[in-house]
Amino acid sequence: MVKASPAVARLTTTEAAVLALLAIEGERSAYDLVSAVERSIGHIWSPAQSGLYALLPRLVRDGLASSRSGRGSRGARPVYRIAPAGRAALDAWLEEVEPGATDAFFLKLFVGGLTSPDATLGLVEQFQVDVEARLERLLEIAKTNSNRGHDWYHRHLIVYGIERSEFELAWADRVARALRRGPR
After folding, report:
1. What gap in Å lies between CA 37 and CA 73, rounded to an integer?
2. Would you call 81 helix, strand, or coil by DSSP?
């Protein structure tokens, strides 16, 4: 039975990642998807293999993917493809701006070719807002740090957080400019 579309539109990050892989890679077996994760998306999102194998039949059950019996180098195995309802749910997930959802942001940016540059730009702009807020909090904390005793240790992490935030803002600015300009 297919779930109603409001429930379908609410994908978990893992469901969205698997559907994105199916959208990009086309019809694949679970084994092929695990290999695709390792060679591409794995540095952004890396699920437990058992979780990936368990998720695929659930996506089929929910009408987000379809499967058929296929032959591979290891014999007969199911192969999966994204269903129209899965593509609709993925599209909705890709365009949803989620404040504070850094992991989802990086995954959405990684598969940004599946959506419009404007949608991806909105995600980058939210990331910038989130990082600016984090930087502001860290700068306020830094003002209260005595740099003595335990604070001396804390200071190292505060400085790390400030420098990382500044780097992320500069990086996000470059990404936003690139999205406005478009691919070359």
Report:
1. 19
2. strand
The token pair at 136 is 């502001």
Decide: pTM greater than 0.90: no
- CATH (domain of 55): 1.10.10.10
Domain of 177, in residue numbers: 116-181
d(CA 181, CA 159): 33
Cα–Cα distance measured from residue 183 to residue 94, given in angstroms and rounded to the nearest whole number: 19
Question: Is 93 found in the same domain as 140?
Answer: no
Q: Which two tokens stand for residue 17?
A: 């990642």
The dihedrals phi and psi of 108, each to the nearest 5 degrees, come to: -65, -40
Q: Residue 6: what pLDDT? A: 45
Handedness of CA 163, 43, 15, 82 (dihedral sign): positive
Quote the number of domains for the chain. 2
Query: Which residue do the tokens 């996000």 mark?
Result: 172
Q: What angle do CA 78, 80, 85 make, to 5 degrees?
A: 145
Identify whether 59 is part of a domain.
yes
State mean pLDDT over 7-29: 86
